[in-house]
Design goal:
Order of helices and strands: EHEHHHHHEEHEEHEHEH
Oligomer: single chain
Distance between the termini: 28 Å
Helix content: 25-40%
Number of helices: 10
Structural class: alpha/beta
Radius of gyration: 18 Å
Shape: globular
Strand content: 5-15%
């Protein structure tokens, strides 16, 4: 293959996965398409969809699906029922029936082999504590496993092993993209990493800071130690509104804001070809 091998690396984002939509639109509008796609959690969902056919038409379908999502699509049992479950035996506050239906709507292909572009997604084994990569077999089961947010959603059993959200061990999976041959990385993640040193003021601040550090440590290390000759672009995300973990009411705002800043980044770095005026081919 002549030229760089381009990877889209989609990090975990939960219900903020609409940030991927804005970044993907900015890339595809400028003619930047992936040779490989890797994803984690919501990035597995969006990554699998775009790997089926990395075109603006596919993205428009994906955008329509995100815009149509509501809390009850993913969390049909509701908070009250979930809190009752917290006091009972079981592995999660909610079932994953709702998420399964969402995944099946988002992914038109049933197996990895059906995809147009090589794709892999990561989940975390509850049995071994290690990451597990999926790139063959059922696409639905793999994406469900990668997106199984601990406590809120039940582990997904595949081949006798229980799996939860890949973000537990690998929130932005750079190394896998390199393993698949990528030499140019476009990194689509929830936000720019805030590495500004600061002293937390409250116990909750300490907890949140430690959680952010633990989730991002591997990504920061891998980004800083990329092999020579590998080009990496961490696409910026616009500031987003506060949302509950189960809220989807600001999807359009999130996608549009992120598209604007991602497109500006690509323009400033001379990546791809500027799209023509609206309404023109």
């Amino acid at each position: 293959m002549s030229g760089p091998v381009t990877a889209f690396v989609l990090g975990g984002a939960g219900n903020m996965g609409a940030i991927h939509l804005g970044m993907l639109r900015a890339l595809l509008e400028r003619g930047v398409t992936p040779d490989v796609v890797v994803g984690c959690s919501a990035g597995a969902l969006n990554g699998g969809a775009i790997a089926s056919a990395p075109t603006l038409e596919t993205l428009e379908r994906l955008e329509a699906l995100w815009l149509g999502l509501s809390r009850t699509d993913v969390w049909p049992t509701g908070t009250a029922t979930g809190m009752v479950r917290l006091l009972r035996r079981g592995s999660a506050l909610n079932g994953n029936e709702g998420l399964r239906e969402v995944v099946e709507r988002f992914l038109p292909d049933s197996t990895f082999a059906d995809l147009a572009v090589p794709f892999a997604c990561v989940a975390t084994s509850l049995d071994t504590g290690r990451e597990r990569w999926f790139d063959t077999g059922s696409l639905t089961e793999a994406v469900l496993a990668s997106s199984a947010l601990p406590v809120l959603l039940p582990p997904v059993e595949i081949d006798g092993e229980a799996f939860v959200d890949g973000a537990t061990v690998n929130v932005v999976p750079l190394a896998k993209a390199l393993e698949m041959g990528a030499t140019r990385l476009f990194i689509l993640q929830l936000k720019d990493l805030d590495l500004t040193p600061r002293r937390p003021r409250r116990p909750l601040d300490v907890l949140q800071r430690c959680f952010a550090i633990s989730r991002n440590f591997r990504f920061v290390h891998e980004l800083a130690t990329l092999p020579p000759g590998v080009e990496a672009h961490v696409l910026p995300a616009a500031p987003w509104p506060r949302l509950r973990y189960d809220g989807f009411s600001r999807t359009s705002e999130i996608a549009e804001g992120t598209h604007a800043v991602a497109a500006a980044y690509l323009e400033a770095h001379g990546i791809g070809t500027a799209p023509g005026p609206p309404g023109r081919a």
